[in-house]
Each structure stands twice: as C-alpha cells, then as structure tokens.
Amino acid sequence: MSLSDEAGRVRDVRAAARVPADPYAGDPDRPVTSALRPWWRWLFAVPGLAAVGYGGYGLLTAGRRVPLGPWLTWFLGAALLHDLLIAPLWIACGWLAARLLPRAARPAVAVGGAVSGALVLVALPYALGRGADPANASFLPRSYGVTLLVVVLGVWAGTAVAAALAVRRDRSRTAHRG
C-alpha cells in the first residue's frame, strides 16, 4: 500500500474498534504512515537494517573466503530449528503458563524462560564438550554442564521469588481495592 493509496482509503470501523487507545499502536486508517511513528522506532530500525546490509555486502563480496555452502546450511538450519522447534516450544510454554499460573506471575516466568533459554543456547556446545581436545586439558577446563545447570537453577530461583512477590503484591492490591 502506498501513501497515495492510503489517502483514499475508507475507514474500517471494525478494525478501528480493535485498536486500543495506545499512542504506539498502529492506526488502521493510515497503516503505512502510522508505522513510521513514533520517531524513536527508527533508532532501532536504521542500525539494524544497516547491519544486515553490511553483512549481506560482506557475504556477497567475500569471494572464496566465505564458503557459501556451509554458510547457507547453517543459515537455513538455524531458521528451521527456530521455526520447527524453538518457536512451537515457546508457544506451548506460554499456553501452559496462561492456564496454570496467576496473571501476575507470568511476566517473571516469561523472562526466566527467555534468560535460561538464551543461556542454554550459548553454553550447550561447551556443556556437551564440543571441540574438546584430550591432548589440551586447558581448552575446556571446567565441567560446563554442571555450571550451566547451577546457573539455570539460579535463574529459576530468582524467577520463583520474583513471581511470588508479584502475586503477593497483586493480591494485596486486590484486597485493598475490594
């Protein structure tokens, strides 16, 4: 949809009724121009697009320094891993949280899940011992699996405390209102 198309649009009251009174929500009357606001969105979009462009340029001009076959395998594999495993798992966890947890505890649990998931993704190769060399004991000198488990348990302990405090605060507010 172009800006000229947007100027001649008819207002769709069904869509307008769905938009909350939120200054950052899109405007169903002007979807193209409302996506340009607020101005600070560009503080995130422009550097991100510049980084993608720089990476694409580097990939295409690197010649034989970048083996495109393995790169493409990794790139597509990461997308498939996300779309077929990580995203459905995250959606299932959200569905379960919505049914099992009090509303006030959900944000803390979502953050705990995201933090522990990122930790596992980063540390899993080390925990599995990928690249370990028996001749060089200093390459992977620690028990990374145990360390990862302790850190993830620490994250979930903090998550449990934050969730319990949020539920307690919510119940206290509800009791004072009613």
- The total beta strand count reads 0
- Largest sheet report: none
Order of helices and strands: HHHHHHH
Helix content: over 70%
Number of helices: 7
Percentage of residues in DSSP E strands:
under 5%
Class from secondary-structure proportions:
mainly alpha
Shape: flat
Gyration radius from CA atoms, angstroms: 24 Å
User: What distance lies between the first and last C-alpha atoms, to the nearest angstrom?
Assistant: 49 Å
> Any low-confidence stretches, pLDDT <50, length ≥5?
none
Mean pLDDT: 84
Your description of this structure?
- By secondary structure, this protein is mostly helical.
- The chain has a domain of 78 residues.
- The protein is 70% helix and 0% strand.
- The protein has 7 helices and no strands.
- Helix 6 packs antiparallel against helix 7.
- It is flat, with a radius of gyration of 24 Å.
- The protein starts with a helix and ends with a helix.
- The model has no long low-confidence stretch (mean pLDDT 84).
Write the layout of secondary structure elements.
Layout: H1 3-7, H2 13-18, H3 31-34, H4 41-61, H5 68-100, H6 106-127, H7 144-177
Helix pairs in contact: 6-7
Give a quick set of tags describing it.
178 residues, mainly alpha, 7 helices, flat
